[in-house]
């Protein structure tokens, strides 16, 4: 029997939203809470070349504000009695999701796969695959 929370990493895509339904179902089954995680990746830009009209720090803050707004909107749409916790982290999605999944109080990760195939699969890093390989807890990948 699982006692840890269900971790649902999201990029706010439709595919991730589909995985949320599975996370809710698993949380209800095991009578645990859900931790929603969104990772804001650090924007890159060279201020010396004036590629960005704002600094990378300002851009990251704007991205975090947008993520918090989306998280608030998502929570307002959920109709559940489950305990729900939200986390916004900065950094590499793989590393941050793994750190959260291996934190000790996560019983399962429910993550969406973007379902890339062929050449696109090899050219784009697959976060879900990485989490499956490296997480200490069970991972449910939803297509």
Automatic annotation (TrEMBL):
Stored CDD domains: USP-like
Domain UspA: from-to ranges: 5-143
Pfam families: Usp
UniProt record similarity statement: Belongs to the universal stress protein A family.
Name of protein: Universal stress protein A
């Amino acid at each position: 029997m699982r006692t840890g929370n269900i971790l649902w990493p999201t990029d706010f895509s439709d595919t991730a939203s589909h995985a949320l339904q599975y996370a809710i179902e698993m949380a209800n089954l095991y009578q645990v809470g859900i931790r929603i995680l969104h990772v804001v990746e650090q924007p890159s830009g060279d201020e010396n070349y004036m590629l960005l009209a704002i600094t990378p720090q300002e851009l990251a803050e704007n991205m975090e504000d947008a993520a918090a707004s989306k998280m608030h909107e998502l929570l307002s749409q959920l109709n559940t009695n489950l305990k729900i916790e939200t986390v916004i982290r900065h950094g590499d999605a793989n590393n941050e999701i793994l750190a959260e999944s291996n934190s000790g109080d996560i019983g399962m990760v429910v993550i969406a796969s973007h379902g890339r195939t062929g050449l696109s699969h090899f050219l784009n890093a697959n976060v879900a695959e990485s989490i499956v390989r490296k997480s200490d807890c069970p991972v449910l990948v939803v297509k």
